[in-house]
Protein 1
Amino acid sequence: MGLIVQKFGGSSVADAERVKNVARIVTDTYKQGNDVVVVVSAQGDTTDDLIAKAGEVNPHPAKREMDQLMAAGEQISISLLAMAIEGMGFPVISLLGWQAGFNTNSIYGSARIKNIRPNRLQAELAKHNIVVVAGFQGINRYDDLTTLGRGGSDTSAVAIAAALRADRCQIFTDVEGVYTADPRKVEGAKKLDEITYDEMLELATLGAQVLNNRSVEMAKKYGVELEVLSSLNPIPGTIVKEHIKMEKMLIRGVTKDTDVALVSILGLKDTPGVAFKIFAKLAQKNMNVDIILQSFGRDGTKDLIFTVSKDNGEPAVKLLEDMLDDCRIVCNTNVAKVSIVGAGMESHPGTASKMFEALFESNINIQMISTSEIKISVIIDAEEADRAVSAIHKAFIPND
Ligand code: ADP
Ligand code: ASP
Ligand code: MG
């Protein structure tokens, strides 16, 4: 018995049958004597559909209005789930983000949670209500609605678990846990029993959609252990925590991220301070730069190549064209980042060469490489990304 936070993603509440299925999981947990807070996402593709609707009336809507619109998706699912739970004879109340005390900053579209005022949540739990909370949303200091960025409901759930010091935080989704690669795309992907916060954070940041990276960051910060599991198949999932049993696995997962643009500045004057000026300018505009490659100078010039997210590609080119003369700046959005992640690689020489060999054997050219203690990423042609993930996965995690 204790306080359990359960989060259900869009596909878990996609239609009436799925909503009733979630109601059964939640009420079973409640019947066992637990307090239950449930966080839900918008049904199925609702958020995508809302974004498409916005595009029909204005190709560049204000971000504030986008948040007003997108927050509607979760409002539908919390009320429907509450009705389903009520229909099964259990005490329940649904709360929007602001009613549940979610205070955020004012970055519409990717707001960060500043704090949760837990009074209302606690009062409802004290009345023995099952509390159903809208994920992905909060309110800023101007009383405007904000959203937390795509996949943000995971973060809402972790934030509640941290604020209420919950005994468990379960993230229910449409696969049975965290796998060594996307199980829908990669044959032979294996479910992991456990994974560390650091490895999960890398996987999530590098493209594994199963958990939002900010939710993992927050779980690590507040020591919230996560359980990722299926809402359709009641079997144990994957535990995400600080320390895990050492498994004989060199790498924990392979991911791809196609939200990448490669910006190349060719023939840049080779003078001190030029890199500083370029990256300071990009930072000023909140453009997050990922991998950076600089060539040796020759004839007084050099090339500087870096990656940003796709939507920042062309704006970065424009910004730099206004600032730099005498060089050519080009943007290539037809690239992807493929990565391997695992704490084991730090102490195993040859990990990089094994990854590069798998790419070589598949005749895939590497355009850029970046490494850290627990990950290696390469930039390759977007068309090759799925083939690359499968080849690398096969090299490191052979089929049984
Ligand atoms: P939800 O709607 O429940 O939040 P998401 O669609 O955001 O679900 O995330 C679940 C999906 O993440 C899965 O359907 C799967 O295709 C994808 N995925 C990508 N990489 C992985 C991975 N390494 N392990 C598990 N699932 C992954
Ligand atoms: N509904 C939001 C989205 O589609 C939030 C979430 O699913 O976590 O991104
Ligand atoms: Mg999600």
Protein 2
Amino acid sequence: MLSIVTPAYNEEQMIHKTAQTISSLMEAENIEYEVIFVNDGSKDKTWEKICEEGESNTKIRGVCFSRNFGKESAMFAGMAEAKGDCVVIIDCDLQHPPKKIVEMYRLWEQGYEIVEGVKASRGKESGMHAFAAKCFYSLISNATNIDMSHASDFKLLDRKAVNVLLNMPEKNAFFRALSSWVGFKSIQIEYDVQEREAGESKWSTKSLIKYAITNITSFTSAPMQLVTILGVVMFVVTALFAVISLVQKFLGQSLDGFTTVIILQCFTGSVIMISLGIIGYYIAKIYDEIKGRPRYIISERKN
Ligand code: UDP
Ligand code: MG
């Protein structure tokens, strides 16, 4: 059986359409399936809509979070609920073309264990956003040694891979990178990002920055090495200034060094503060992980 997991956050306008599209597609292709909607603490009527769909079609199941835990948590919850031999993760806004599910499923039947959907194009994005995304992906690609610039969460995973992911103890999992990191026999298929049909993107600039920092730090400690590099740079600059002020002293013109002192002091101060900030961030992450809180809390289930 194929399980289709779709995280939904404030998607009341999309639930019916998505459920309809997926179920009629699966029935036309004669694929045994279940759809699992994960309501990620939506503030609108998303959960009611999911329950309505569940009433008319028992293959449609729902999980409701007690509050918003984020898309990563929603995807993991969906995978934990899935009973199928393979799981497809797809966005609820139909930006990932559902037709590709069939293509992914056929590849799985041929023996592939992970089928990754890669974006042929990134759809419509503003200049600034495209630039930020490029920076983020080049960092993450370096950290994971996998080209992630066109990666997305639209994937099919075999039961084996799903179990590996579910058994990982880390809470700050970055699904897109982790699912490549686990290995297995994989293949990529391209798809075009569609326009959103209704509702709006759930990502604000702030949440995207937060998402980027969390995922970079959970995959690499390179920012911490930045501290060492800054320290070395600082040392070289200091040595230079030391030589200059010594020369000035011997030439008898050492009084007007005030500017240098101020600049140096500010510079040292800022480098130390940045460094402490980076170290503090990692300590906070260690703290988060050892608290061992659950990734998500389920308040209700349907079917
Ligand atoms: N989503 C979620 N929890 C969140 C934010 C988003 O479950 O906190 C879901 C959302 O309902 C959608 C998918 O994640 O199905 C992708 O979100 P969106 O379309 O807003 O992102 P974009 O396509 O703009 O990257
Ligand atoms: Mg979207």
